[in-house]
Amino acid sequence: MVDVIAGNRFASGSEVDVGSVGQSPYSVDLATLASGTVISVWQDTQGIYASRYTSSGAAIGPEVLIAAGGRQSTVVGLADGSYAVAWLEDVPSPSGYNGSKAFVRVFDADGVALSQPTLMSSISYGSQSNLMLVALENGGFVGGWCVSASASAVRTFDGGGTPLNEDAFTSSSMASSAAAVSLADGRVLVATSTIFSPASIELRAYDPTTGVVEQQAIGQRTPAPGAYFSYPSLTRLASGEIVVSWLEILQSSAIVRGEVLTATGGPTNRSFAVSGTSSILPTVAALDDGGFVLTYSGSSQSGATVYGQVFDDAAAKVGDAFTFNAPGDVDVRNATVASIGAGDFVVSWEYRTGGNLFDASLRFYYDSTEGTNAGETLTGSPAIDILLGLGGDDTLNGLGGDDFLNGGAGADVLNGGEGSDTAIFDDSDAAVSIDLSTGKTSGGTAAGDTLNSIENVVGSAFADRLVGDSGSNRLEGGAGDDVLIGLGGDDTLDGGAGNDVLIGRGGGDTLDGGAGTDTADYSASATGVVVVLQGTQREGGDAQGDVLIDIENLRGSAFNDVLVGTNGVNVLEGLAGDDILNGGVNADTLNGGEGSDEANYAGSANAVRVNLATGQAAGGDAQGDTLISIENLRGSNGGDTLTGDARANRLLGLAGDDVLTGGAGDDLLVGGEGSDVAVFGVASGAASLRFADDGALIVTSAEGTDTLREIETLRFTDRSIAIAAFGAINTTYQRYGGRAATDGELSYWGGQIASGATVGDVRGAILADPLSARAIEGSYRELFGRAPSDAEVATWRKMFGGEADLVTLRSVILSDAAGIAYTNAAIDRLYSDYGGRAAASGEIDFWRGQLASGTTLADVREVLIGDALGANMINETYLDLFGRAAGTDEIAVWQGILRDGAEPSALRNAILSDPAGRAHTAGMIADIYTDLGGRASTAAETEVWIGLIRGGANYDTLRSAVLDDGVLGRHVSETIDTYYRDYFGRAADAGEVDAWRGIFRNGAGTDTLLETLFTHPDASAGGVVRAGGTAAADTFRLGSSEHLLIEGFDPAADLLDLRGSALANVDPLLGAREVTSLDGRIDVLLGGGDVLLTGIQLSQLSAGDFLV
C-alpha cells in the first residue's frame, strides 16, 4: 500500500515484519550500511538478532544471531560496509556488584562475525545503560553508555572491535540518557541528559583519536521550572550542521524540542517543537536533500500511535505529521528512524500482540512524484521512486530501483524498468483483476492499464484477483475477499483484510492471510502436499518450502494430501486423492472430497466419539467437527468409539480400549494397543470367520467382509467372543490337521467354546476325523517321498493325543537318513527350477531346518520365486532365448504366474512361441553347430533342439551333444589342433584337446580358445608379436606375416598402421568381432585372427584409428 504524507513529497511502501514467524521481536534499532542494506537489530526471549533488508524492504537471508541473551541493542554501519552491534548483559562485577554491562561485536555485511563480544568499558563500575554507537570515517567507531550513579562515557574502537583507549566521561553530572554523532571535523558530539536539577541537555565534544573530552561544554539546554529534559537524539545534516532533539517533560504533557547547530555544535537560532499530550522517545535522521525526519511515540505507557514529521534544513515543518503503525496495533512504542539514501528513510515501531509478547515492523518511505488529473508522463530515477498518476491516461516510467507506480484513474501505462517494481491500485473504487503472466488488466482503476516489467501488485479494498508470473512476485490483496495466485518463483502473497484465497503454485512461497478467514489453496499442485498449519512442515508439490502466516483453512490437491489445522476453527478440503485431515482442537470442517479419506484424531488429548453414518462427532478434538466425504477414522490414544457407514471404512483405534463398528461394507478394523472390541450387527451364527495368511481375522456376514487386526473381542447381537479363542482353534487345526480352520470350523468351535467347550475338545475332534490321517500322509509324501503305512498313521495319531504334533512328526522324518536324502534333493530341484542354479549346502541345511518346523516345500518355492534368484532365473531365460534382458514389469508378471502354480517350462514355452524368441534360439542353435561342429544345423535339427529346450534342455546340453557326435565332435578337435599350430607352432596334445572340449561343454566357444592362445606367453613361437601402449600417442604396425597382440590400445590417441600387411586397403572393422577371455575380459579380434586388441570393445573403435 502507498501512503502519501500530506503536504510533502514522501509516500510509504508496505509494512514489513521484523523477524521470523513465531518470534517476538522488540527493542528495534536501525542502521544503513555503505551498500544500502538496511540493518535492524532487535531482541526476543532467545537473544539479540540482526535482520537485513534491501532499500525496498525485501528481506535478505535469515536473521543473524548476535548474542544468546542480552537486551537494549543498538547498531551502526561502519565505513567499510561492516556493522557494529552493542547490547547489555547482566554480569557479575569483580567488586561483587552485579549490574548491566555493555558488549560490542563487529559483523561483515553478510552477518559473519568479525570479532568476539568485547566489553565496551575498561572500568568495572556501576550498571550501564542507554548505549550509543557512532561510525568514524577511518572505519572505526565510538561506543558510549550511561552509568548508574555516574556520568555518560565513551571509548574509541577500531574497525575490528578492538578498544583503542580508556573510558572518557562526557557529562558533568549523573546521566539518564545520551546520544552521539560525528562532526565534520572528526570529533564526536555527545548529548547527555543530566539527572540533577536542572535536568538539562549537555553538549560536549570528544576527540576519538586522543580519547579526550573537551572540558568546556559546547552548550547546555536548560528547561523551565517544573520541567525536565531527557532522551536526546542527534544527526548530521548533508550540510554538516547538527540537529539535536530532546523531550521536554511537563507535569501533564510532553513536547519534543530541537534545534539546528553549526557544524561544530554551536547555536544557529533555528529551533523546532512538536507538542503532544505524551510524546516520548524522539529520534532524528538526516535526509540527503538537506532536511531531516523526526519520529516519536504517542504514549509512555499504552500508546496507540507512532508519529513522524519531516523538516527542511531550516528546521521548518514540511507537510503534516504522519502516523506509520498499522491500524489496530496495541501498545505501540519505540519509534526509530534511519536514512536509506536518495532522500528516503525507514521507520520501525513495536506493539504488543498479547501478554508479554511483542512484534515489530518496518515501513519504508520514498520520494514520490505526483501528477495531475490530466494525462501526463512521469519519469523516475535510477533509485526507488513512487510515481502517482492520479487522473487521465498516464505513462509512468520507473527506470532503475524498486519503484511503486500508481496510475490512478484512466488507461495508464506502467513501465517498471529495472528492479522489482510494484503496481498500486489501493485507491481503486472497485475490485481489480491483474494477471502479470498475460498482461491482462480489468476492473476499477486497472481497466485499460498496460503493465510492463512489473513484478508486484497491490490491490484494492474490494475482492481482487491478482496473478503473478514465472518470477518472484509480491501480491497484496488489501481489504476484500481476494484471490491471489503466485504462479512460479518464490512469491509473497499478502491477503490483508477479508476472507482471501492464496495460491502460491511453484516455488517456496510466503502466504500471509492477514485479517479474516483465509485459505491456502493447493488444488493446482501436480503432486500431493503435506501442510501443517500449527507448525512449519510444508512438503510435496506446490507446498514445498512454503511459509504460511495467518492461514485458517487449507485446500489440498487432486492427489494424496496430509492437511493439519491449528487450535482454531479450520476448514480442510482434501479434494481428490486419499487424504488425511486433522483439524486439531475446536469445531473444524473436514471435507475429504473424492478418494478414500481419513479424519485423524491421533493428537487428541481425550477420547473421541465419531459416527460416519450419522455425522456425529464429539469428545476431544472431534467435539463439534463436521465430517464430509470421510471414509476412514483414526482415533486417539484414549478409549475411542469409532463407527463407519455403508461404505468400505478403515477404523484405527490406536492405544486405549476402543470400540470399532464397521457397519455395512468391507471394512478394516485395527484396534491398536488396549483391549479393543469389534461390533457387528448380526448374530454370531450368521457370521463366518477365517484367518488370513498374515494372521488377520476375516469376518464375513450380511454386513460385508471385514478384516480385523489387533482386536481382542467380537461383539455380536447374541454374545461376545474373545478372539484369542479363534486363534487357539486355528492353531489347533494347524498342529494336528495340517491346515488352517475353515470359516465354518471357526464359527462352530467359537460358539462351542463360548458355551463351555475347550481347545482339547477341538483337538479330539480333529484326531477322530480323517483330517489328521491326511495331514500325516501329506508330511510323509512331502519329506519321505512315500505314503505312510496304516501302522505309522495309527502310531502318530496316538502320539498326537499326547505332546506330539505335526512339527514333531516332521522333525522325526528329517532326522532319518532317507528323509534327509529325499528332502535335500527336493530342495535342490526347486533351486534349479526356480532359482536357475543348484542349492548350496548351507541353503539346503537352512531349509531342511525350516521344513522340520512346519514350513512346506511350497513355501520354499514361493520364497525362491519372489527372491532375487527367481528374478535372475527369469532374466537369464530371457537372455538365453530372447537375446535380451527381461523388463522389470515382465519379471513381475512371470513371478506372479509362477506363484500361481506354473512350471518354469511355461516361461520357456511362452518365449519360444514368440517369433522373436524362436528366431533368436534358432540362431543360437545354428551358431553352436557352426562353432563346434563346423556346419550350421539343419532345419530338422533346429526343430528338435527347440523342442528339447522347451522341455528344459539348455545350450550346454546342445554343446555336449555336438561334442559327443562322432562326426561333429571330430571337427572341434581338429579346430583345437589348428589353433595350437597357428599360435604355438605345434600340435595340441591329447590332454589339451580333452581340456578344451570340457571348457566348450560349459559355454565357451572357439573364440575363447583363440584369445587364450593369442595372449599366452608361448604364442611367440607361432609368430605372435606382443606390443604395449604407453601414456603417449602410439603407432603400432602389423608386419606382412605376423600376428600382432596389442595391450593397452587407446582409441583416443593411438593408431594401428596396417599398410603393407594382409589387411592393407580394406576396412579393418569389416569382420572384426569381440572375443571373451576365460576370465571374462572383452577383446577385439581383427582380420580373422591377425590382430588382437585386449581390454577394449568394438564400439570404441572407428575408421580413424587405422592407417590402411
TrEMBL record:
Query: Cellular component GO terms, alphabetically?
Result: extracellular region
Location(s), subcellular: Secreted
Among its keywords, does the record have 4Fe-4S?
Answer: no
Task: Fetch the PROSITE patterns from UniProt.
Answer: HEMOLYSIN_CALCIUM
Which InterPro entries would you find in this protein's record?
A: Hemolysin-typ_Ca-bd_CS, Hemolysn_Ca-bd, RTX_toxin/Mannuronan_C5-epim, Serralysin-like_metalloprot_C
Give the chief site where it resides: secreted
Q: Gene3D superfamilies of this UniProt entry?
A: Serralysin-like metalloprotease, C-terminal (2.150.10.10)
What superkingdom heads the lineage? Bacteria
UniProt xrefs under Pfam families: HemolysinCabind
MF GO annotations: calcium ion binding
> Does the record carry Secreted as a key word?
yes
Q: Which UniProt keywords apply?
A: Secreted
Tell me which PANTHER family the record gives. S-LAYER PROTEIN
Q: What is this protein called?
A: Ca2+-binding protein, RTX toxin-related
Q: Which organism is it from?
A: Sphingomonas jatrophae
